[in-house]
């Protein structure tokens, strides 16, 4: 080996290391970026909260202040100010829209403020008003000893250190509470995503399995079969945004026959079902093919018919592979955005319904990134959820296939 | 069956803007060759969008291809045992990340990188939204597909070729690059096609950072751009009217571009193979 050859070899080898190093670095950069932006935000209220903030105005009728003195829990921090007469504590915080808010951090179960009823006109008028930790207090109106109404709170630019002692010393009776259940949550999209997963699998898995069985066992080797196969291949290479056009032009008129109109989760899941079919069919067929032929031969030798063998022996033996295919389908649904933007719309819903439009987690990210001021924090928080789900599903698939490999060898 | 239905239905919807009533009609020639896309003025010229899409997708793909081949060589021929598994896992994880997440990353990191790079050269960018950012993003997104295909292609090369080359006195590295990689070129070309398909069809992530230029084509990589998919997605508010219908026409163009690109790569692959068989 000459020296020049040696140098050339070393250079080429280092290039391969460099290339892989770049890919590893990109992966780490993505994970670090997403987690560092979203992790701070990701808590229970973001995960399970509403996206749209809800303003609450509640009245308290003639409820008189009791003489109970509440003891705040010892765990309150220095920045939390507690009202001992009304049994709650607030903290001055900066919310997701970068505004100062007074967030309730503790409410005693017996606090008289929990007995309010909603006073704004609307279907919820007269219902019990919420007063819970996590909400923001903007304004409290109380009646003092002289019978005058006094308003205190954040809206007067007062700090909690100013208005809470005032409330405790002056108030004789609480008249009104103005607060807000903060938004910026992802519960609606989470539910919509679950609905989407359920419906898409319901539509696509049976068809996928039967199509795979057909290709595996029933189809003859002729031009029609070749055509079907190449169609499936072609379908797998079609970008998802084309599928969403297909959903609008082809599936939409069909479901309109059933009285559904507009963008809906049903339309989205039917579109997803078509999108998933090629992958499902191919992987199920592969799973069926990997079942040793001796199984089928043994079953046939014992006198079972072809169909019995297929459904009682071959299909159960391939269940691990089919299960993996379904998991990969779920992970595809969670990550899909382009196919759903046209078919399910881009309006974020807090309580999604199957027959109306909603956003999945991925589409919510797209919507959040779309405006003039992209909301990176929330988008990253949702990305964390998506990443964890998708990577966990992929890992499960790997474990399942490793397990069945081991079993096969044994 | 679905394929035919998709083609028929989307196409029939897509040609509607060109057949409608006079004031709602779009001239097909202007649509295909125009260099201005002003939805607000009713001017729909897609020509420059097609060119932009071709530029960013092909450049992104070409950027990813050497990286993918080099990584594949490392995974299959240099790295042993655990390291090889680790590298494969990295590629698989990159492949599993959904495109919206790539979009968030691109809008938050790649654009900032491009903006800073532009500042170094004294070029002001639109917050980093540019063709260059799209190219980088597409290179990252197509890399896993190409690597996976290249790895399986290299693994499928018969051992005899390897042994023959080594027996003739070539070093292992020489063998990898001069014998094995050329022998796996068919898989690598397939991976390149699949990667390009992903690049052309990539919608959400690209539309977050493309910037949606109104005119073009622009040859400056730091200038904002507009791709077919970002055109289909941006400003989607109503589900009626010309502005909505025209998106289907763009979809038809996208399908045509992808299919012709596939045919082109296919033809190139065939020529490559012919050349290869002539040598051996």
CATH class of the largest domain in chain A: Mainly Alpha
Largest sheet of chain B: 2 strands, antiparallel
Radius of gyration of chain A, taken over Cα atoms and rounded to an integer in Å: 30 Å
Q: Secondary-structure element sequence of chain A? A: HHEEEEEEEHEHHHHHHHHHH
CATH architecture of chain B: Orthogonal Bundle
Structural class of chain A: alpha+beta
Q: Span from first to last CA of chain B?
A: 41 Å
Strand order of the largest sheet of chain B: 1-2
Q: What fraction strand of chain B?
A: under 5%
Can you identify the CATH superfamily of chain B? MetI-like
What's the CATH H-level superfamily name of the largest domain in chain A? MetI-like
- Give the structural class of chain B: mainly alpha
Apparent shape of chain B: globular
In CATH, the topology of chain B is named MetI-like fold
Assembly state: heterodimer
Provide the CATH architecture of the largest domain in chain A: Orthogonal Bundle
Contiguous helical run count of chain B: 13
Which chains make the largest contact?
Answer: A-B, 67 and 68 residues
Query: Count of helical segments of chain A?
Result: 13
